[in-house]
Amino acid sequence: MRVAALWFPDWPVQAARIDHQDTDELPATLAIARQHRIRVCSAAARHAGVRRDMRVRQAQAVCPGLVVLDEDLDRDGRMFESIAAGLDDVASSIEVLRPGLVVVDAGAAGRFHGSEDRAVEMLIDAAARRGIDAQVGVADEIATALIAARVGAGQVVPEGGSRPFLDVQPVTLLAAEASL
């Protein structure tokens, strides 16, 4: 079975931006924290030197304009519901592993839409309609599809090509995703 994984990088940051879009403007340097430690941050914050698991005070010293919000798992889930619903319009077999990470039966979606490539394109378009950043990976099994999504947008591992693809990936990719 072919699997497509859609990964929404820094989902808690994206969810916070969606949640605050009507009330106030959030800066590019944004981070989400739990127990005084950075859990996730925006690309701009990473570029300024902020890292996951960094103490909030240290992160603010490295990046003085950094806005830090408290982790809100309810917000993350609530904001992801509409994304999942939009993806469900394209493929009936979506499974939300966590807010910000979805897997789809790419074979079934490909048969319905005429090709695997067309189905993947439609899934990305469904996410992009909402102004959300998403990356997709396609492979023979879930774990490889997740890694392919994290490696680069639109990464398609050929059928039977999981082992050669995984052989060249850093082991740190496995630790980066709790769903693995």
UniProtKB/TrEMBL annotation:
UniProt entry tagged with the keyword DNA damage: yes
GO BP annotation list: DNA repair
Organism: Corynebacterium pollutisoli
Start and end residues of each UmuC domain: 38-150
Protein name, per record: DNA polymerase Y family protein
Signal peptide residues on this chain, from the entry's feature table: none
Family: Belongs to the DNA polymerase type-Y family.
InterPro entries: DNA/RNA_pol_sf, Rev_trsase/Diguanyl_cyclase, SulA_CellDiv_inhibitor, UmuC
Pfam families on file: IMS (PF00817)
CDD domains noted in UniProt: PolY_like (cd03468)
Main function: Poorly processive, error-prone DNA polymerase involved in untargeted mutagenesis. Copies undamaged DNA at stalled replication forks, which arise in vivo from mismatched or misaligned primer ends. These misaligned primers can be extended by PolIV. Exhibits no 3'-5' exonuclease (proofreading) activity. May be involved in translesional synthesis, in conjunction with the beta clamp from PolIII.
Keyword annotations from UniProtKB, A to Z: DNA damage
